[in-house]
Amino acid sequence: MERRPRIYYSDAQKALMWERWRRGESLHKIATLFDRHHSSVRSVLSESGGIQPVPRRRSERVLSLAEREEISRGVAVGKSMRAIASSLGRAPSTISRELHRNDGVNGYRANLADQRAWQRARRPKLCKLGLHRALAMRVAAKLKQQWSPQQVSGWLKRTNPEDTSRQVSHETIYRTLYIQSRGALKQELLAHLRRTRAMRRSRHHTQKTADHGRIKDTISISERPPSVEDRAVPGHWEGDLLFGDRDSQIATLVERRTRYVMLVKVDGKDSETVVNALIKSARRLPRELYRSLTWDRGKEMAAHRRFTLATDIQVYFCDPHHPWQRGTNENTNGLLRQYFPKGVSLANISQAQLDAVARQLNERPRKTLGYETPVERYRRTVASIG
Question: Domain check: are 225 and 363 in the same one?
Answer without folding.
Answer: yes
